[in-house]
Amino acid sequence: MTAAPIHVAGERLMLDPAGVLHWPARRTLVVADLHLEKGSSFAAAGRFLPPYDTRETLERLALLLRRWRPVRIIALGDSFHDRGGAARLPLAEAEALRRMLAGLEMVWVLGNHDPDPPEGLPGLAAEEFTDGRLVFRHQALPPASRFATQPGAEISGHFHPKATMATRAGGITRPCFLADGRRVMLPAFGAFTGGLDVRDPAIADLFPRGARAFLLGRERLFSMPTGPCRMPAVPAPAAPFA
Amino acid sequence: MGTLPELFAAWFAGRGWTPRPHQLALLRAAAAGDSALLIAPTGGGKTLAGFLPSLVTLHRTPRPPGPGALHTLYISPLKALAVDIARNLMAPVEDMGLPIRIETRTGDTPQNRRARQKDDPPHILLTTPESLELLLSQPEAGEFFGGLGAVVVDEIHALAGSKRGDQLALGLARLGRLAPAARRVGLSATVAWPEPLRAFLSPSGRAGDVRLVQVRGGAPPELSITLPEGRLPWGGHMGLASMPEVYRRIREAGVTIVFVNTRAQSELCFQALWRLNDDNLPIALHHGSLTVEQRRKVEAAMAAGKLRAVVATASLDLGIDWGNVDQVIQVGAPKGVARLLQRVGRANHRMDEASRAILVPANRFEVIECTAALEAVRHGELDGDPPRPGGLDVLAQHVLAMACHAPFHPDEFFAEVTRAAPYATLSRRDFDDVVRFVEDGGYALKVYERFRKLFRDAEGLVHVRDTRVARQLRMNLGTIVETPLIKVRLRGGPVLGEVEEWFVSTLVAGDCFIFAGQTLRFEALDAMSAVVSRGGEGDPRVPAYAGSRLPLSTWLAARVREILHDPRKWRLLPQPVRDWLRLQQKQSALPEKDGMLVETFPRGSRWFMVAYCFEGRLAHQTLGMLVTKRMERLGFGPLGYLATDYVLATWSAFEPTDVAQFFEEDILGEELEEWMAESSMLRRTFRNIATIAGLLEKNYPGQEKRPRQMTMNADLIYDVLRKHEPDHVLLRATRQEAAGGLTDVARIGLVLARAKGRIKHMALDRVSPLAVPALIEEGREWVAGGAEDALLAEAEAMVDDVTGGAEAFSGLLAEVTEAVRVRAGIVDKPRHRERRPRNARFIRTAPRGVTGA
């Protein structure tokens, strides 16, 4: 496994091909869009998806905790698929999650799927979380907002970015990080999470000068520039994203 | 009954007809209350035979209107056919003034008419399997079908063995309970396996309970083979070299159907014909990716006699009877005898006149295949696979539908289901697991109990939870799952049809391609469609469709082997083909009838191995994967492989020696299993099964974008389920369908068994005459136009980068052609599996050849 270092706002951040970001200076692991209990959320609507998504997501997260040994985790929102998600956690999974978080500083940035702090779980809940020159939020702010005057850089999730690399056999699509000098957008980490193409105006408009996409591979990342050019304008799909 | 009433006899006489023996045989069966299967060639008055007993009964004992009026239910695989039959049936009813009302009910029937039909059903209702299932899921189904006297299933051979057939069989089993007195009539084209069809129709699931009425003969079809002028092509499947000859035949005949094997081929042939069309003959195009309106327009023009020819794919194999088609031209090898006959039967729908058909092989191998097919037709032999067991996904849908109809008792319901022939061997465990799946997902981890859709009462009856469940079911009913397609829309104009998304993903603005009979320039992808404009420069490409090419049937393959092996049979073949085979005989050897010829030779800086297996492209595709894996392990450094219907060719860094070791039967063991689990074929199968079973929502073509949280990626679910509950009923259903339903794995077994101890290895110093078509194929399949070369070469480096060299290229291709979905401008793809060895990365096969096998 090879993580890719990038520098934003004077900070060195490591992009892990598993789809998480590590900030060595603060021993902080950042993960976006866990969407825990998405399976049971669908079940309530009559589609019995396999009830193993939470288990799967947590197992993968546990692996990364062993790899990076952080002292703090920041979850960038949509950690649960819906408001009732934390309450629906099966006993074993709730237990595993609490064990995993024991001794760690936990920050739950709130997202559109989980606007309330998760019930019965340790940690700090916040709309936004700032540490030094980095601000962590669920959804990136548009360029023409207070973002324009803010110092430092923004780390966000929400959009589930995916990118397609053209090959002679057609495109190959993977979840990806998306970064320019002032923003890093993380791919979704949850087991059942789909994605949105980075050329979609909803994402592309956030990177008016283009960005670099880091597509997730098994052992490493594959990077390519995504130009300021984007797909022809269509009505932007309304958030929220799954 | 059993004889024709006066009124009917007079009607027949008035038209100068006499009732045919099989029509009377069906009358007798009906009089005895027996079900009957009528197998007859097209044009035998089959449909009238099916309805005659009902007309007679309703004439003798008219039914008053009201809820119990429905006497005869007619089910056809095509909406259009139901509508057409209704129209044809009106003629005798009106002529004789019979007190009979005839109506159709399909997906197109307006809501108010459906509601009216519920209270005031017609005497004869014509419908499709899907609409029948919907009717059966209604609480009032018992009353509606209670008075049913007969069920007529048309084109039953086209339904049995498919998922729609499974659904129909289950529906018939339910009708057997609602209306036990109703007899059944099946109408079928000539098939190789009448017994499973009888069982399919039977109320008990046993073939013996159904009378078999078989009409033999009719005039035998007049078949001939036409070769292109000049040189006979070595390779290629499009048959374009023969278009001048095809055009000449069109000009000389009244009305012609030109059947081709793929949609891409239909586009190319259509263009080629129009380039030759100096007489401006009305020649049209018909294939499954054109819009429905476009297809209806062509069909209507054909019916009205306004066309001289239509270039068509399997989209016209079935369908309404035009009656005025003078000849059928089959371009490219027919791939199966039954299929050829079905197509030939589209010409001249009158039984006593011979159908005329011309076969136009595209290359030398196809000449042999066409000859083999002709021989088979001459001897009245048929092929085709018997129906496979019913799918558990269809059963899951049916369980919920029947729960919506009325509470059921599992024991009785199980007994009912197993009376449907496709489910005769269903195990109680599978049945119970399917019911549990419908109930709450049926997972080992019991966390969805409070979301249950079904509940059991104190008496053991199973009820559906609420009306919301029923509504959801009715939205998702049906067994046809669309592949991810994207619309092609003219800028500021209409939608022309649909192409597979992966093809669009290979286009950049300015590229041009041939579709719907025109050359189009790709402009951009918007949320719903690929926007194109007319015209464009450069070499146009042709959209290909994964899995659209049928593999050679086992049976026809055996006949091809026989001809090749036996020089005495060569007199059937044209001179150039004979010369070719003689050359092969001299320079290498002929493939054995039993056993297997394997050639190895150097070419360029590579070593080629060509195995003459003759088991069809799909089987060879999988075999190629397994054989190269074995070569890899043994250190031969395989670089790639290619599968055609006839041969498997591999190329490697080192000379393959002791070739028998690559074809040992144990390659079907663990390596196969491991590969199957990862294969895109299984993923695609799972996606369909999960959709039909109700786990995933169906995609409705043309539907507005759904909220994104409602969309679900089947591949992610497959991965999670496989890891945490590999024995779940949906995965069992997936494996069963992939391994048992698709015959290619069984056919690999045949190859290996035949090869055992009987491999004839010819170590040559250069390519053999018989191997040339396969090696040409590599180029033919890969590069459609010169301009593509640069594009491909450039992207190759990127593939490597993306995959870190860790993935076999063929694996990528399989996914790109099959697993990509576009939804509103979002290209969504499964995460990749990287388990392939680094040095296998040059393995590649052609996009169209990769169908997951």
TrEMBL record, chain A:
Keyword hit for Transferase:
no
- The answer to whether UniProt assigns keyword Ligase to this entry is yes
| InterPro entries to which the protein is assigned, alphabetical | Calcineurin-like_PHP, Metallo-depent_PP-like, PdeM-like, Pesterase_MJ0037-like
EC number(s) per entry? 3.1.-.-
Give the record's keywords alphabetically.
Answer: Endonuclease, Hydrolase, Ligase, Nuclease
According to the UniProt entry, its GO molecular function terms are: endonuclease activity; hydrolase activity; ligase activity
Kindly report, in one word, the top-level EC class recorded for this enzyme.
hydrolase
Task: Specify one Pfam family.
Answer: Metallophos
| Residues of the Calcineurin-like phosphoesterase domain | 27-129
What is the protein name for this chain? Ligase-associated DNA damage response endonuclease PdeM
Q: Which gene encodes it?
A: pdeM
TrEMBL record, chain B:
Q: Does the keyword DNA damage apply?
A: yes
Which InterPro entries does this UniProt record tie to the protein? Answer: ATP-dep_Helicase, DEAD/DEAH_box_helicase_dom, DEXH_lig_assoc, Helicase_ATP-bd, Helicase_C-like, Lhr-like, Lhr-like_DEAD/DEAH_assoc, Lhr_WH_dom
Protein keywords: ATP-binding, DNA damage, DNA repair, DNA-binding, Helicase, Hydrolase, Isomerase, Ligase, Nucleotide-binding
- The answer to whether the entry has keyword Signal is no
Q: State the signal peptide span.
A: none
Q: Which Pfam families match?
A: DEAD, DEAD_assoc, Helicase_C, WHD_Lhr
Query: This protein is called what?
Result: Ligase-associated DNA damage response DEXH box helicase
